[in-house]
């Protein structure tokens, strides 16, 4: 059965996943790139070093954001949202990075992949790269379930 996700299901997919795709325009061409993200109920937050993705979003902050959950080819959910890119600074940079670290770090560490002796999980000292958020507006979702 194919169908549409309701608002609650869309929120569940956005909160459950950590890999999404940003669609933007770079030098007149559509550019789609996978990103690690965290969703706070309103915005998707990400971190990036300077490159094509950031240059494109700075030039045109209107973006598309896509996330999916796939169990198999007959059981999946997909969410597409349109939003606006905002580059963060100061305390907002720190808060965004904390959200990312708190969500992603447990997925990177396990009992067999502990940080090196004496290291503590968390962002590097000082600010490196850009932390951004995409303020999500219109959202749509689809699913297939067999």
Structure, explained:
β2 (19-26) and β3 (29-36) form a beta hairpin. The chain is α+β, with helices and mostly antiparallel strands. The N and C termini lie close together (6 Å). The chain has one domain (2-110, 123-144): Pnp Oxidase, Chain A, CATH 2.30.110.10. It is globular and about 50 Å long. Strands 1, 2, 3, 4, 5, 6, 7 and 8 form an eight-stranded antiparallel beta sheet that branches. It has helices at 7-16, 52-59, 90-108; strands spanning 2-4, 19-26, 29-36, 38-39, 43-48, 62-72, 75-87, 130-144. It has three helices and eight strands; from the N terminus they run βαββββαββαβ.
Architecture blueprint of SSEs:
Blueprint: E1 2-4, H1 7-16, E2 19-26, E3 29-36, E4 38-39, E5 43-48, H2 52-59, E6 62-72, E7 75-87, H3 90-108, E8 130-144
Antiparallel strand pairs: 1-8, 2-3, 2-6, 4-5, 5-8, 6-7, 7-8
Which band does the percent of strand residues land in? over 45%
What structural class should be given to the helix and strand makeup? alpha+beta
Write down the secondary-structure element order: EHEEEEHEEHE
CATH topology: Pnp Oxidase, Chain A
Q: Tell me the helix content.
A: 25-40%
Q: Give the end-to-end Cα distance, rounded to a whole number of Å.
A: 6 Å
Total number of beta strands: 8
Radius of gyration: 16 Å
Largest sheet: 8 strands, antiparallel
Tally of distinct domains: 1
Number of helices: 3
- pLDDT below 50 for ≥5 consecutive residues: which ranges? 116-124
CATH architecture group name: Roll
Shape: globular
What do we call the CATH homologous superfamily? Electron Transport, Fmn-binding Protein, Chain A
CATH secondary-structure class: Mainly Beta
Mean pLDDT: 90
């Amino acid at each position: 059965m194919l169908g549409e996700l309701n608002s609650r299901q869309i929120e569940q997919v956005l909160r459950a996943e950590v890999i999404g795709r940003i669609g933007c325009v770079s030098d007149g061409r559509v550019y789609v790139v996978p990103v690690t993200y965290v969703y706070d109920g309103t915005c998707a937050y990400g971190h990036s070093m300077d490159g094509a993705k950031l240059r494109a979003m700075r030039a045109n902050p209107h973006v598309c954001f896509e996330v999916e959950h796939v169990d198999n080819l007959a059981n999946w959910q997909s969410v597409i949202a349109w939003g606006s890119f905002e580059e963060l600074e100061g305390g907002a940079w720190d808060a965004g990075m904390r959200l990312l670290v708190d969500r992603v770090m447990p997925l990177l560490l396990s009992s067999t992949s502990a940080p090196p002796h004496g290291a503590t999980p968390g962002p590097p000292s000082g600010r490196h790269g850009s932390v951004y958020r995409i303020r999500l507006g219109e959202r749509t979702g689809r699913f297939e379930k067999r």
